[in-house]
Amino acid sequence: MSENCNQDCGACSQECEDRKEKNEFAIDLHELSNVKKVIGVVSGKGGVGKSLVTSLMAVAMNRCGYKTAILDADITGPSIPKAFGLKKKAISIDGGLIPVASKTGIEIMSINLLLENDTDPVVWRGPLIAGTVKQFWSDVIWKDIDYMFVDLPPGTGDVALTVFQSIPIEGIIVVTSPQELVSMIVEKAAMMANMMNVPILALVENMSYYQCPDCGIRHDIFGTSTIEEIADKHDIDTYSKIPIDTKIATACDKGLIELLNFDFLENVVDKIEK
Ligand code: ADP
Question: Could you give all domains of the chain from N- to C-terminal order, each with its CATH number?
Answer without folding.
Answer: 26-273 (3.40.50.300)
